[in-house]
Write a structure and sequence with these properties.
CATH superfamily of the largest domain: Glutamine synthetase/guanido kinase, catalytic domain
Low-confidence stretches: 1-11
Strand content: 15-25%
Radius of gyration: 21 Å
Number of domains: 2
Mean pLDDT: 90
Number of strands: 10
Structural class: alpha+beta
Number of helices: 13
Strand order of the largest sheet: 2-3-4-5-1-8-10-9
Length: 349
C-alpha cells in the first residue's frame, strides 16, 4: 500500500446523500465464523493462517467482482494500518492484533472483509448519508456469495455462532454516524441518550467503540441480534430510529436559528475563520472547528464551502492521511499541528 495515493472513502465524504445534513455515514456489518475451527481467540497461529488461506482462496463475489485488494495486515507499516483504520475499513483491535490476519477491500473502498478479527470474518459495507436499506440489500448478496464458497458455523436454534454472545443470531450490526451539534448546544442530548437506552442501542464516538464523540459525532448501533431477523433490525433503524434522531437534531437547529441567529452565525463563521487563518491545528481542534463549519454549511449560513469538502477534510486531517498528503512523519513525538493547519488552510481558500 505504501505507494498508493489516499483517496477519500466513499462511505464518509458524500455530501448529497439522503439525510446528509445530520448523517455522516451508514454501515452494515456481519460477523461470521467457519465450520471446523475454534473462535479466533482459541485458534493457534497455524490455524489462523489456515483461515486466511481458505478465505483468500474463496470467491467473495458481490462488490468484489469489480476488483479486490488483499492487504496482509501483519506485513504493512504502522502508517498503512492506521490509514485503513481512519477510513473505517478495519477496526482498532484489528490494527493492534499480533496474530495472522488480512483484509479484503473492494475497488471503491465501500466494502471490506476482515479475516481473523474477533470472528473469522467481519463483512462490512459503508455508504454516505442514510442508506441502510441499500447497504442491507447489497450485504445480503455478498453474504450469500461468500457462503457458497465457505461453510459458516450455524446452529438451527441460535443462528450464526459468534465469539461475542451479543452477536449470536443474525450476527448483524447496523449503525449510523450522526452529527448532533444543535442538540448539544441546546443541551438536549439526553433525549437521544434516553431513547437509546429504551431501544437498547449503543452510542459510541467518532471511531466507534472506545472512542470519544469529537465534534458532536455519535455512532448509534444495535446491541443485540438474537431472536430478530436482519430485515427487522434494518427496518427499525432505517424507518424509525435514525429518522427520529434526525428530526430531534433538525428541530434543535431550527430552535437555534429562531432563538439567536447572530450567535449561531458568529459560532460557525468564527470556526471557518480559525481554519482559514490558523498556523497550528491539533486533531481535536480541527474536528471541533470543521464540525461547526459543517453545521453552518448544512444550514445555509456559510456559502462557498460544500458539505462534501468538509466531510473529506474530517478524514484528511487524521494522522495517517495527513502524513500521506503532506509527507510529514507520523508519531515519535513529532508535532503535526503545523502541517495540518497548512493543509486545511489551502483546502479552504
Amino acid at each position: 500500500m505504501s505507494g498508493d495515493n489516499p483517496s477519500p472513502l466513499d462511505g464518509l465524504v458524500g455530501g448529497d446523500a439522503p439525510m446528509a445534513d445530520c448523517v455522516l455515514s451508514s454501515r452494515v456489518r456481519l460477523a461470521r465464523n467457519l465450520v471446523g475451527f475454534h473462535f479466533v481467540n482459541r485458534c493457534s497461529p497455524d490455524q489462523l493462517s489456515d483461515v486466511v488461506h481458505r478465505v483468500q482462496s474463496a470467491r467473495l463475489g458481490g462488490p468484489f467482482e469489480s476488483g479486490v485488494r488483499w492487504v496482509n495486515v501483519q506485513g504493512t507499516t504502522p502508517v498503512d494500518r492506521l490509514l485503513l483504520f481512519e477510513r473505517n475499513l478495519i477496526s482498532r483491535p484489528f490494527v493492534e492484533s499480533p496474530h495472522p490476519r488480512c483484509v479484503a477491500i473492494s475497488a471503491d473502498e465501500s466494502t471490506s472483509v476482515m479475516v481473523n478479527e474477533e470472528d473469522h470474518l467481519r463483512l462490512q459495507m459503508l455508504a454516505p448519508g442514510m442508506q441502510l436499506r441499500e447497504l442491507s440489500n447489497r450485504m445480503l448478496v455478498l453474504d450469500s456469495s461468500v457462503e457458497r464458497s465457505l461453510e459458516y458455523a450455524f446452529h438451527p436454534r441460535f443462528g450464526y455462532l459468534t465469539a461475542c454472545t451479543t452477536n449470536v443470531g443474525t450476527g448483524i450490526r447496523v449503525s449510523a454516524m450522526l452529527h448532533l451539534p444543535a442538540l448539544a448546544l441546546v443541551q438536549e442530548l439526553e433525549k437521544v441518550q434516553r431513547a437509546a437506552r429504551e431501544l437498547q442501542l449503543a452510542i459510541r464516538g467518532f471511531h466507534g467503540e472506545g472512542t470519544e464523540a469529537l465534534g458532536d459525532f455519535y455512532q448509534v448501533s444495535n446491541q443485540t441480534t438474537l431472536g430478530r431477523s436482519e430485515q427487522d433490525i434494518v427496518e427499525q433503524f432505517a424507518g424509525s430510529i435514525v429518522p427520529q434522531f434526525v428530526e430531534y437534531e433538525r428541530a434543535a437547529r431550527r430552535a437555534l436559528i429562531e432563538r439567536d441567529p447572530t450567535a449561531l452565525d458568529d459560532r460557525v463563521h468564527r470556526a471557518l475563520g480559525v481554519l482559514r487563518a490558523c498556523r497550528q491545528l491539533s486533531l481535536e481542534e480541527s474536528i471541533k472547528f470543521l464540525a461547526r463549519v459543517r453545521l453552518g454549511v448544512a444550514l445555509g449560513r456559510i456559502e462557498g464551502v460544500s458539505l462534501g469538502l468538509i466531510n473529506q477534510l474530517l478524514l484528511q486531517v487524521q494522522p495517517a492521511h495527513l502524513s500521506r498528503a503532506t509527507g510529514c512523519a507520523l508519531g515519535n513525538g513529532r508535532d503535526d499541528r503545523g502541517p495540518r493547519a497548512d493543509f486545511v488552510r489551502s483546502s479552504l481558500r
